[in-house]
Amino acid sequence: MTQSRLLIAVAAILVVDLVSPVFAHTTIGNLNSTPPYYRSDDHELNPTNTFGTAHVPGPLGYVWPGAGFSFYTSRSGFPGYQSPFQDYEEPLQVAGNSYSPEGAILASTPKHDSVGDLIFAVNLSQPAAYITPENPAPKFNYSTITLYLPAPLIDKRGRLVQDGFEPAGGIDWEKGDSSNIVTTITADYGRIFVGRADANDPFAPGWWSIRITASGSGIVFTPERSWREWYYIRVNQLRAPDVAGRYLFKIFLSDHYPTKHQSSPLINSTMPAENWPTLLVKGDVDPAIVYGTVRYGEKAHPTLYGEPIELPGVVRAVGIAADPYTGEATSRHVEARGYFNASVKGHFEVEGLAPGIYDLYASAAGLPERIVAHDIRLLRGQSLSVDLYLEPGPEIRGEVFSKSCHGQVQWKGEFPISIVIYDSDNYIEANVASYSPINLTHAPYTSYVTGNTLFDSNRLAPPNTPKLAAFPWEGPVSYYPYTAAPPFRDPFGVHNGVGPAQVWWVSPTGSFDPVTGLGSSPYSFRFQFGAQRYYGAPRLLSGMVPQALATWIDGLGPGTYFIRAHVNSYVQTDISGSSFRDYYFTVNPDQTLSVELFIDLWLSGTVNLTVHFHDDPAGMHAQPIRGPDPARFLIVEALDSSGILAAFNFTLVPASSSSATLTLDGLGMAGVIPPPDPRGKIKYSLFRYRGVRDYGIYPGTYFLNLYMRGYIQAVPPAEEPRQLDQPAAITISMCNSTNSISAHMFRGAGINVTVYSTDWQDPHTPTRWRWNSTPVSILVYDVASRSLVDAVSFWDGNSNMWRTPQANSDYDRIPSPDWRVIFGSSSSTLITNGSTILERLGPDLPSPTSLSPDQDIASNAFPQSILHLGFLSNSYYYRFGDRSTVAIYPGHYSVTGWTYGYVQEGVAALGDLGNHLVAVRAGEIADTSIRLIQGVEFDLKIVFRKELLPAGLPSNMSMRVRVYDDRDVLVAAASTSLDISSVQPLADAGFFADGKKIADAGCADPPIPAGTLQVECRRLAGLLGYVDPTEGAESLRRLTQFSPDIGVWGGSPNPIPGIYRGDWRVLVELVP
Predict the structure, then answer these.
(1) pTM for the complete prediction?
(2) Which of 221, 524, 921, 969 could form a disulfide with 124 if both were Cys (CB 3.0 to 4.6 A apart)?
(3) CB-neighbour burial class of residue 1063 (10 A; exposed 0-12, middle 13-18, buried 19+)
């Protein structure tokens, strides 16, 4: 029978009542070049700080430091950033000038880290703007929030590319540790992900990304509450940047990003960029500011000289700090930066400057950085206006030819082409200086298309066509005659175009653009970076510019550069294919003239691969792979003698097939999945997933490795272990030569598991599952290596999907006697022949649908920046080394079961093998069963007191309860956002506030209400979907593989391995 424990905890209350802020604050607004404010749609037109009238309609972001409330001014408002260009101050400033708002924080220094907390908040601005006769009471609902925080970035030479915030106190966001993040959006840390966005993130390359999935009814704004809901995220213990300046935080809701300024029709699926919050980091208590206009300095272009640039860029002030009172120079190095977008027409503001002596550096997209002012002396509280002049870098033009052994030939197909400029002949990503535009927001992350990247053979399937991409998309259209038409512009500024509008696809039926002469002909491709004496080739894609998408902020400066052209099926070599061919150019100081290159690409070889599938190692007849699901992914990798990936492809093999064919042309153009899958007909590039660019195959010998669920590649007759995992070797030559090869895969082993629910008695008696609908994770381990092989799934024939089995309280076992009555006649039992993760996740997530793409667009770039789901991102989904991770090899295995409220003999922690072993042989299925035992349950009662007297909670609170044994091992936990109520909402279990049940609380669904005197946590029986905030990787495991749910060991008169007779310690945490 189940054991129960009653524990009573007394919680002393020490919290702060959250009063909704009432003062206006500064966001980035709609930046422009019009004095005196240089922005609109912020608080500059609202000196009375009336709520909701200063900012554009839509969700509105806030950030403020420290405790978050104006304790030191006895005000209930928050000290947010405020623009230096305003004619009123509210709330009152503490410092002696308006260049240091109350919400500013001090920068870190080499001798002192400035560490503190930041609080972010979201509410809704101007809800009345959304009211229409057709929708008089609009509701807003968002399921996720993604918060980008600037992070320090260092280049290969050790130079600071950008500065930002860092978690302090040993917290490692790189490893997913979210323990310094607290939010009212959820109390379930399995819904909080943190990590660093990669260098190709379309919004914030290299920034920190915090992604939260909302509990309860989501992030909602409702007419019932007059749309006045507030949501908070607190990030504790952040180290401030060393570089001073105004820092921007990007906030996206429900995985949407805005495609325009807020205007009719109104953006409603995400937060408008104008409403993103900013924070001033200052180099001294009473800082100075330098502002002005960046202008064209190209004297050879008299119509442009002296005009404000319409490009994004940055101004850096670098110098030595001075004593703020005496003005004498110190030895402290100081720096401040100010970023600007194209819409401000060169207006820049470098804020937070410590008193000191500075040199000014400036750069803009296509206009290389140069020193523009020397020895500027700034006093505390001083403002200095200065105009700066920049000159464009060189234009880079080129033509790429399609070649074969007999001369120039038509392009092999309609393929994306990528032109990459490196600052070294070591062609690695760290040396990339500039690159042609690719779609970074949507899979398959190739060159831009109008429509979708769907293929019919080697061409885009109609009506999908290559799309023009231009630099700049919004900038100086008045003085450059050919730019993209309005539908192709990014209203927040230049994104990643590099020159005049052109397509970046090669095509055997293409023709050059009649105006620019750029694009593809049947035999060659012409490209252009920059436009001579307007702007040069851009470099340094940055998210620091105040706009939605990252953009260029610099240009190619003096130096020698190397170019590579990347196209599937082509190599950049001599005619033999044995020697790589470098193409390079040199940029001299102050060079603005064009550079022209001619590049030959040579058709490489092709491999036609046929794979045969066999059931019996002793027989050579191919047999269908069979179900229960309709198809399985087959992946092939070609490795050179050094183990470097040279070619990749995959296909979907129907259950009725006994063989499959694939073509290997190199890297890129991988797939296709047949319809009706939403990813049907898409061919994928590997660059965004693994940093590998499209390319052909060099001549030489390669080894083909095959991976498919339930099958092992082998050399016939595959009767001995040494005959398994034997790759097929093939020699490939140049000039579109075709080589054919056959390979064989043999059915591996299988394990069929039955799981029983039992009590503590000896002998054990089967009992019905105690916790209905809870997931049961059945883990299979290889005994020899102690490595996890699979978390067993079953095929649900009714819903046509792989699922984790669940407990059913009407029965005492899984599968139950009427299993196929419940799940359909085509369903499987708990049989594993290898992990189903390839089929469950596929190559990448299907692209989401954008309901109003003229306002905002949905993108998987937000979740994938942290999660990297799909086998294109991670080869460990299907192999470890050369060994398949989606098949079961002959050998010995252990089987363990994990579910809420149950324990297993000999199993206490993940990785324990227990005492249940099974031996399997290739081509056979071994039957086995395991027995799970009902564990201990806790009844917890938490009483709130103040000065030893009962006291109600001062505000709504979320709660987390954790129970540790005397070895400091976490054995049970729950929160008001995640407990047994998530699967059993009506059960007499979970959280009860003064007797009233609390379930799935979070966001606008109140958790424990204010005034509560007592909270009970009834029948807490272990861990159910719980993720400790220090274990970031656990969130990903729970999302993609399994949730290691478990019960609590207790004492027993029977000698059961694992029994526990010690004490427990209860930790209760409350968050307002």
Answers:
(1) 0.93
(2) 221
(3) exposed
